[in-house]
Specification:
With 258 residues, this protein is mainly α. The chain contains ten helices and no strands. The longest helix is centred in the middle third of the chain and has 29 residues, at 102-130.
Length: 258
């Protein structure tokens, strides 16, 4: 019985997903441990540097929970988008098989990064909870939606830079430059309400900030971030994905034959 195009793509993505796992972790005995260590070490450093100051400025909020809900969403966005750019080169030989398309490699990598960081998030939140820090998931739907939109947004950005990078190789260098300032303007280490309101219209163009603050609202009772919007995050994500898919559709054959 012939399989549908969707079933074929599912099988391709599944195979690429397990290939990515072997490539990423197979040669290291503690490979899976390193996936947890990176965000945990990052969190520990920031807690050491800013913990005392932020405890004084936000006495009613658990700073580890606050920080964790900023770092992990940023890592998801950063890792999916940057790893998507090199997805074609890493899987070049597989494109001799007709069912394998460049977009499948992005979806497989995005799925792996999502699984890794959702797992890391759950583990670190449990560690934080057991250490005596308080949080409560007050809106699971908001948490799931904001993270889902962030993952789709990351795929859209990765798709855009993958296509541009295959067309004009120099453009691949712009993504890391683009990501670095986002770390400092996405409310990773500070709440939006700590910024003077006259700067909000500029900061709120950044969809990562919306995802971060919505994530905090979902797990921190009483934490309200005025100005952020799930609707804005959704619209920005859909627009980015649309642009990425349109670019991909026009350049797919050229990328496969280049």
């Amino acid at each position: 019985m012939a399989r549908s195009g969707f079933e074929v793509q599912q099988a391709v993505i599944k195979a690429l997903f397990f290939r990515e796992i072997r490539t990423r972790f197979g040669k290291y005995r503690l490979g899976y441990f390193w996936a947890v260590l990176e965000p945990a070490a990052h969190l520990l450093v920031l807690l050491t540097i800013f913990g005392f100051v932020m405890h004084r400025t936000m006495p009613d909020i658990s700073f580890p929970v606050f920080l964790l809900n900023g770092i992990i969403p940023y890592f998801i966005f950063s890792n999916i988008s940057t790893r998507s750019v090199g997805a074609i080169e890493a899987n070049q030989g597989l494109f001799n098989y007709r069912p394998v398309k460049p977009i499948d490699t992005i979806l497989a990598r995005a799925l792996l990064e999502s699984v890794i960081y959702v797992t890391v998030y759950i583990l670190l939140m449990l560690v934080v909870y057991m250490s005596g820090e308080y949080f409560e998931i007050t809106n699971l739907l908001k948490l799931v939606l904001s993270w889902s939109l962030l993952i789709i947004l990351s795929c859209g950005i990765g798709l855009i830079f993958m296509v541009l990078g295959k067309t004009i190789p120099e453009t691949q260098k712009f993504l890391p430059i683009f990501l670095k300032p986002l770390y400092f303007i996405s409310a990773i280490m500070f709440p939006l309400h700590a910024v003077p309101k006259e700067y909000w219209p500029y900061l709120l163009w950044n969809p990562i900030l919306h995802a971060v603050e919505l994530s905090r609202e979902a797990v921190m009772p009483g934490y309200i971030s005025d100005g952020v919007s799930l609707e804005y995050l959704g619209l920005f994500t859909l627009l980015t994905l649309f642009i990425g898919l349109m670019l991909y559709r026009t350049r797919e054959e050229a990328m496969l034959t280049s």
